[in-house]
Amino acid sequence: MSNPAIAGASSYVLPARRRQAGSRLPAASRSLFVSKSGSHQHRANPLRLASVHDAGHPSTEARRGEFFPPGHYPTPPFYLMYARTRITVPSCLGLVEADRPSKQNAEAQAPIPRQRIKAGDEPSKLSHMIETIRVALSSMGGGEISVSAYDTAFIALVKNLDGGDRPQFPSSIDWIIQNQLPDGSWGDSSFFLVQDRLMNTLACVVALTSWNLYVDKCEKGMHFIRENIWRLAEEEEDWTLIGFEICFPSLLCMARDMDLDIPQDDPAFEAIYSKRNQKLNKIPSDVLHTMPTTLLHSVEGMAHLDWKRLLPLQCSDGSFFSSPAATAHALKETGDLKCLNFLDEVIKRFEGGASCVHPVDLFERLWAVDRLTRLGISRHFTREIEECLDYTYRYWTENGLSHAGSCAASDIDDTAMGFRLLRLHGYHVNPCVFKKFEKDGEFFCFPRQSSQSVTAIYNTYRAAQVAFPGKKDDVLRRAERYCRTFLQERRASNKLSDKWVIPKDLPGEVGYALDFPWKASLPRIETRLYLEQYGGSDDVWIGKVLYRMPLVNNDLYLKAAKADFYNFQQMCRLEWHDLKRWYDRNNLQMHGLSESSALRAYFLAAANIFEPNRAAERLAWARTVILTDVVSAYFQRNGCAPDLRERLSTSNLTRDRHHSLSRVAIMDWTENSILHVLQELIMDLGKFDSATDTLRKAWKDWLMAWTAEERSGPCEWSTALLLVRTIEVCSGRHNSTDHQLNVWEYTQLEELTSSICRKLASRVLAKRGHRMENIEDIDRQVDLEMGELAHHALQSCNGIRKLTGQTFLHVVKSFNYVALCSYETIDCHIYKVLLEDVI
Question: Where in this chain does the record put each Terpene synthase N-terminal domain (predicted)?
Answer without folding.
Answer: 306-514
